[in-house]
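User: Quick sanity check before I run a bigger batch. Here is a single chain. Can you write out its predicted 3D structure?
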Amino acid sequence: MNSLLYYTKKYPAISIVIGFQLFRFIMLPFMGLMPQDAYYYFYGEHLAPSYFDHPGMIGYLLRLFTSVFGKTVWAIKLTDFVVTSLTLVSFYKLASHFLSKRYLNYAIILISTTLFVSILSFNSTPDVPLLLFWTLSINCLYKAIFQQKKEYWILGGIAMGLAFDSKYTALLLPIGLIAFLFFSNRYRKLLLSPWLWISLIIAALVTFPVWWWNYQNNFVSFTFQSTNRTSSISKLEINPKYFLGAIGHQLILLLPILFAVFVTFTYKYIKKALLKFKLPSNQTLFLLAFFVPTFVGFFLITPIYWVKMNWLMPSYITGIIIAAMFFNKKLLKTQLIISIVFHILIAVEILFYIVPIKSDDTWVGWEKLAQETKKIQKQYPNTFVFSNDNYKTSAALNFYLDEKIYAQNIIGLPALQFDYIGDDLTSLNGKNALFIDSDKRFKNKNKKGEIPTELTTYFKEVKELEPIIIKRGNQEVRKFWVFYCADYMYKK
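Assistant: Done. Predicted structure follows.
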């Protein structure tokens, strides 16, 4: 005990980091399956060079960990925790290039106590590997440019490619790199260096599987992620709720003090650049090059488009390094206290589910839903199961049930990756099915009382069964409508 107190006093920053990571690790067994966990596990079940809505890195990692530790929710959560822990280690190495020991300690405390790290540690999304390879990329590029280690151009290219194989947001890495070199008087000459272009070519080669899959599938993934969203943005319809929502999300992910510092230094550096034509030092400019395009870029479109809370996460890596320079002990202590309070509230919610979540984005009820669905299948044998909520219910049931679960492509609707696993839906002609539909708002235990019209188009007979009510202890927390659908008729 005395030795523990000694090391805690001697290394307070590392002790805080270990404390928060230990908290997250302890929480892993209590976190139920999230629909995102199930969907990206579904990626790993159907290995491919890429996938409809994202590249496949998170799916590959989940396949690896569940192959080693078994098909369990804990193994999935362990994947997120381990990869995010590696991101923290990589962040520490990156920050050490820019900060003195004092501010380096501030930086590692700031990032490790944020809620966004907790979210990445608990929930499988493409951002989990993206943040790791994003951090590794910047670390390698720093060594290539500032320490003139040519081998790091190669490693940086590999890391940028792997980041893109995680999520398309990684395209901002080479954009940030070229922007830095362009605005830096000292390093602008590297724009003509063969090493820069070798790095970019290597990055492109590493991303080849994503391009090849898209080529084979009419570039549907790129279209889904770009054209559809671009058309929404081009309408230029102002909606203040989008902007306020983005502010609220960032206040949660970063916590108020850190977010305020982000806004402060962003305003400071942009004001100097635009009004005084003065750029910061090369090292700060390097950090800003990987911060501004993501953080400011996405914020600029928030008045006209709903920017998801995780889109800005890559900017946090270099943003927190800059922010650490603006912190003092008082601010850091306040940030830490707020973080502890938030994490206690998170623990209470995970353990006791005090506030029921009126959404399918919850860790509660999926396993019990699978169990109840299996019971209904015994009453209605030889039925296949499908749902219609993009992926959530279908993916969760797919994880827990030892049979193929279908999505809304059964009734002729686009079904994300479920459309690209080679299913021959004509083989289901004449079969009966169970349609599971989540009642997200769950106000009563009544039946829905009406038959969804899309079902009657594809089945000769549809009848509503008693809904599935999910309990947590004595508390009724979720509800699913159930429909028995007879004699499926596939239609192109």
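The chain has 23 helices and five strands.

User: Great, the batch can go ahead then.
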